[in-house]
């Protein structure tokens, strides 16, 4: 192109030094050039009028005359390669507005440039080019609509499943839809069915289902959002404990691992309650009884539900649903609640774990420092409160537990634990050590040990954040108010160390519950065999505390 115009360029005599910044044609999309030929003419004549252009063309002609092998294209692109590394481009010099971001998607240049080494070598340049950025719509007020393909796929499945004279399904038949179309755990089926069957007709029609699931954009939501949407009550922005009851009821009615409870509805209720308390203990971190979508997404409930749906042995579902875990919690409560009025008082709780706890910490629990009791009986702890206590006591590595005990020790509630506050609790431990003729450890030494374990930001106090950042925080609490666990920690109980090594993926709670379940079931065996003479008690299985 440049050679064919040499005659017009020849008169250009003014030679100044080359300014590569003025030669930035590669910055312009060929697509833009094609669609605006006038612009091309303008640019080209501007380029021609540059003294450097005349200089370049002249030297090329001289080379040609002298018979030197010339590669005009190579020369040309060389000059431009230098130019393309620097800004501003020629566009800025002619004050042209940037091109619409949309046009770049069809531009062959933009796709070519992505793979060229110069583009790869300069990520900054890629981002600075407005033509590179195409941001797809990402916010939809009523949820992201399904793609045509996904919609068709679902509709064909729906048509197949609803293909009957009624054009609808009864509650039991609906389960297949829950599993195959919605891809949700089967024990959520009744809850979903009732959500769609608003008039309680006992049937969900094909059209009603499509309106709710496909047209309502439920299809494209993530599982947590789907479950949140249909479990919550209309107009609410959270889930409460009550909202979980229907799914627990269905799990109890259908899960093979829970069938044996069908003749004891009382225990079904207790199991359901316990699972719900455990879910809220771990997931409702604000502690206000209102589980938000954000909290639901952060926790492990959805994967636990999916596991419970696939696993016939409910005891393998360690998060929330294990029957054995429920059994251990409930038996402990029953054991302490001697008059079986379903409440325990301070004197009952002090017996927990072979009198492991101090009076001072038990008093703090009963003053409701870590958590307000759910029941309203003065000075009494209900079952739900006990579940919170027990989970905190048996797994001090979990965050809800650290928060629970932190509030207990923080006597003045100012958000930091001071040596004085810790000493208040430790005094009673020290006294108990003396009574049991154990070698007492002075508070000063204990404080040093605690500071070493936690490595707090400030040396004069410990924050909740400090505790959350240390793996040894649970031991600090045991030092302060649980004598049995303090001693076990100090002597590095081989039993515990062996258990930890056996399966490091288990939580402290999982190990405790497993150990306790074995112990409790052995006790039951002993009771059953009380008429016989054989002593079936195995000392090695006894809990170390
Ligand atoms: Ca009682
Ligand atoms: Ca404090």
From TrEMBL:
GO molecular function: calcium ion binding; protein phosphatase regulator activity
Record keyword Aminoacyl-tRNA synthetase present: no
Organism: Gossypium raimondii (Peruvian cotton)
Any GO CC annotation of this UniProt entry: protein phosphatase type 2A complex
Name recorded for this polypeptide: EF-hand domain-containing protein
Superkingdom, taxonomy of origin: Eukaryota
Keywords attached to this entry: Calcium, Metal-binding, Repeat
CDD domains tied to this protein: PPP2R3A_B-like
Low complexity composition bias: residue spans: 101-121
Region (Disordered): 93-121
InterPro entries for the chain: EF-hand-dom_pair, EF-hand_13, EF_Hand_1_Ca_BS, EF_hand_dom
Domain EF-hand positions: 397-432
